Structure formats: structure tokens, C-alpha cells
Amino acid sequence: MSLSRAPRRRSPSGRALLLTAVTVTGALTLTACGGSDSGKPTGSGGNYVTGASGISTAAEGERVEAPGLDGETVDGKPLDTAALKGKVVVLNVWGSWCPPCRAEAPSFAKVSKELADAGKDVVFVGVNVRDNSKQNAASFEETFGITYPSLYDPDGKQLLRFPKGSLSPNAIPSTLVLDREGRIAARTLAPLSEEQLRSMIDPVLAEQ
User: Fold this and answer.
1) What was the pLDDT predicted at 9?
2) pTM, two decimal places
3) Residue 190: phi, psi to the nearest 5?
4) Measured between alpha carbons, how far is 130 from 71 in angstroms, rounded to an integer?
């Protein structure tokens, strides 16, 4: 005679723990280096359209205002992005531990310097995340010639300020371009070449 084993029932508390684990794993995937979005899919979502390059753009009348980011920079100075309204802002999320961030850093150093030298109405701001010390972040900036400021945000709290459903920087690296009114005009969740970076900035810079 064979005995069949009754299926084990998972207790309510066990199910809750499992769901919590899945949720946390999903959140970590979104914030992993390279992110959950490789930038390849095309289509639309909400108030924006994503092209084949992985760059998402929002028309002027459909843009969401970016939250103000403020705090201490990697070099210990105060910074508040609210003071930058009236200029086009390029916001780059990065970490010194992130290989794609290192890959795109020379393009950011070059483009930011050339636009500044040309007197263009654009400023670059970094958000350094998940670095355990400012020293690592400062070494990254020195190595790649990054001269613009970066907010030091080891816990990623600055990024939580972005509203759900907006073009938020939910991967590392991420790059946003804000228009002169402080609204999110473009975003990518993938590392950028010099050409791709300029393709994000130039249309917004040309707006009157």
C-alpha cells in the first residue's frame, strides 16, 4: 500500500515573506548597474515615447516637472537644482563601481566642457549613488576629468523624489535632460556615447 503525501500548505505569514522577497528582488533589479532596461525596446508609455536608441522623449506639453534635488556634493559643497531653472540641465546618475558609468564618463567630460566653453545655456549635474565613500567618487571624477558637481547620494534617496510614471532615473547609469522650466524632456537608462548625449541635449537646447 502506498501512502500519498498531502500537499503542504504555505501559511499566510510564509506567503507574505515570499511576496516581500520578490518585491525586494525586483527593486534591486531596477537599481542594478546597467538597470532593468537595456534601452533597446521601443514603444510608448504614459506621456513619453521611446525610440530605437533607447532614448525616451516627452513633447513640451506633456512633460512632468522634475523634483528638486539638494544636498552636499562629492567635494563637500551645497547644491540645489531648484536654483538651475532657466537653464537646460543634464542630470547623470552614476557610481564609481559601475562599469557602464566608467564607459560613458569620457563622453560626459568632453561634451560638458565643450558646451561650457561655447557658452551654451546648459549645466551638468551628477548624482553619485551607492558609493560607500566620497573618496571613491572623487577619484572617479579625477580619473575621467569630470569637472561639474555631483550630489553625493549613497542611499539613493534623491532618486525616490521622482514621481511614479514619470521619466525617472531608475537604473544606473541614467541620464535625464531637463528643459528650462525644470521639466523632464528626455531620459535614457543606458550608457551614452558622445553622439547620443548630444542628440538628447541639442533639441532641448534649441527650444525657445
Assistant:
1) 52
2) 0.80
3) -135, 160
4) 15
Q: How many CB atoms lie within 10 A of CB 5?
A: 5
How far apart, in whole angstroms, are the C-alpha atoms of residue 26 and residue 2? Answer: 42
- Residues whose CB is less than 8 angstroms from the CB of residue 7 and which lie 6 or more positions away in sequence, other chains included: none
Q: Is residue 193 predicted with pLDDT exceeding 50?
A: yes
**Cα-Cα-Cα-Cα dihedral of 60, 195, 114, 172, to 10°?**
80
Q: 179 and 63 in contact (C-beta within 8 Å)? A: yes
Q: Which three cell numbers stand for residue 7?
A: 500537499
* Calpha distance 182→84 (Å, rounded): 8
Confidence band, pLDDT 50/70/90 cuts, at residue 207? very high
What is the average pLDDT across 32-44? 43
- pLDDT value at 84 more than 90: yes
Q: How far apart are CA 179 and CA 156, in angstroms?
A: 23
For the residues of 84-111, what is the DSSP string, one character each?
GTTSEEEEEEE-TT-HHHHHHHHHHHHH
Question: Under 8 Å CB-to-CB from 86, ≥6 apart: which residues?
Answer: 180
